[in-house]
TrEMBL record:
One of its GO terms (cellular component) is membrane. InterPro entries: Peptidase_A8. GO terms for molecular function: aspartic-type endopeptidase activity. It comes from Bergeyella porcorum. Belongs to the peptidase A8 family. This is Lipoprotein signal peptidase. The chain crosses the membrane at residues 60-80, 92-117.
Length: 183
């Protein structure tokens, strides 16, 4: 369990430090190539939903997603304990899972607290039933004085690999997909 904890803490620190840097130095949507490569970019995106921006149910969906993340993180802890008790201590299994675990915790932190500690971001506008960008480059503010409230923050995404250009039909039933490049 010690290996899992060390890897999780290291990855979580790197994750949060990079997200803080992107959020406090980039405008939403700003993109720069990494090492001059066209196929690897840092692009600041805020994701109010799940993977690839999928979302459901407005704010109720957001709350459900936070609860689901907490349940899944608990399930991962249970699984780690089970594996260790069964003697499955291979680094080939535990280290990648610890990285995934750290990412899950990082995304939970973003969604729960970023709205409370930054002065700008993406917020849910109930009058139109959509997530909207608010402000520009963020500044860190005293806890609770941010652009939104508890569990209303968005996950900061930044690694962009524009390898395939594609479009989702306008009438797609999946909310949050805009038809862009595959990330």
């Amino acid at each position: 369990m010690k290996k899992i904890a060390i890897v999780t803490i290291i990855i979580l620190l790197i994750d949060q430090a990079s997200k803080f840097y992107i959020k406090t130095h980039f405008q939403l949507g700003e993109s720069i190539p990494v090492l001059g490569l066209d196929w690897f970019r840092l692009t600041f995106v805020e994701n109010p939903g799940m993977a690839y921006g999928l979302q459901f149910g407005g704010l109720l969906g957001k709350y459900a997603l936070v609860i689901l993340r907490i349940i899944l993180i608990g399930a991962m802890l249970y699984t780690f304990n089970k594996w260790i008790k069964e003697g499955r201590t291979s680094n080939y299994l535990l280290l990648p899972m610890a990285m995934i675990f750290a990412g899950a915790i990082g995304n939970l932190v973003d969604g729960m607290f970023y709205g409370m500690i930054f002065d700008s971001g993406t917020v849910y506008d109930e009058s139109i039933g959509r997530w909207m960008e608010y402000g520009g480059v963020s500044k860190i503010v005293p806890f609770g004085e941010g652009y939104s409230h508890f569990m209303k923050g968005c996950v900061v995404d930044m690694l962009h690999f524009p390898l395939v250009d594609w479009q989702v039909p306008e009438n797609s039933p999946i909310s949050g997909w805009k038809g862009n490049q595959f990330l």
